[in-house]
Amino acid sequence: MPAIESVPVPRRVAVIGAGMVGLATAWFLQERGAQVTVLDRTGVAAGASWGNAGWLTPGITTPLPEPAVLRYGLRAVLSPSSPVYVPPRADARLLRFLAGFAQHSTPAKWRTAMGAYIPMNRRAFEAFDALAAGGVASVTKEAKSFIAAYRTETERSTLLDELAHIHAAGQEIEFDVLTGAEAREVEPSLSDDIGAAIRLHGQRYIDPGHYVHALAASVRARGAALVTGADVVDIRDEGSGVRVVTAAGADERYDAVVLATGTWLGELGRRFGVRTVVQAGRGYSFSIPIEHVPTGPVYFPAQRVACTPLEDRLRVAGMMEFRSAEAPLDRRRISAIAEAARPLLRGADLDARTDEWVGSRPCTPDGLPLIGRTRSPRVYAAGGHGMWGITLGPLTGQLLAEQITTGRQPAELRPFDPLR
Q: Where are the membrane-spanning stretches (predicted)?
């Protein structure tokens, strides 16, 4: 095995990507004395960070490839109204991703991947608390109620089985099993169609767009340059530093570079040995008025619809659409989410939608993110979190900053080697 090249502690670091993961990495690098420049081709929270559900749920953060996924069947995933959608004209790259995804959707591989997540899940809130203590001016909110609601007890059994598997893997999560009437007592926004529910304890949530912008403001206030409209087209390791070139002709040299570009991680990472396919798993959302704004998140697992209270409105999010990140918003998907939620919510005006949005979650075939040093000792990857970039983004940044500045890989990051 070749020796790992030793490099001086980097002082000037470029972070490519201004979403939750990139900005958290920048913030924790600043804590360790690094001078940081953040570059993004569009702007802060322009990718998957802005319009997602904003759940901080380490209790149910699990690998996306799971045996239940294989039960959907071909006809289901080809339907635009399906919670999981694959366009009928899939390209070779997407087919390679789907084949790998299917190979990892087995009980044994799920248990292995879950074992990788557990140490991260246990520390996830710790990183958010560090950001709060350091002055990030956006709070995490305790989910006083977090209801997973179903029409029937039979539907509910799927999540109860998953919670049992999570517990068997070594992760604790507290929950109550409720009837439909008990769920409506806790959350009056649920309709009479709800016949069974689970109330999760110990979780949190945020307004993700507000939070990520507050994190960006903190990074900037602590001395970082934050450059938007910077489309990075070339990164070259020159032996004693890394040169970063943008489409506009900017050309700067840094001691180290972090690739936190979400779905586009492979475009810059491939030359540094990152071969894992990172596929866009697109999610949709919108916000609506509702007579009774829930006191915490509401989840309809059978429909894959997630609802989050944001001030006086309810954000409704859902779907997993495996297609190009650049594809336009598909209004059929927005309509499918609205029609799935309509009979399950009371007093919700699902036709008064605003803030319609689509964003691309960066998904990997094995369901594990890519975090750590690449083939270059000066280039690091931080991405591929799938649905969990908001929950695990701050801890990813904290641990990666430690690795970059000390040269030592934290134990929690070992399963997420970007060269695997």
A: 12-29
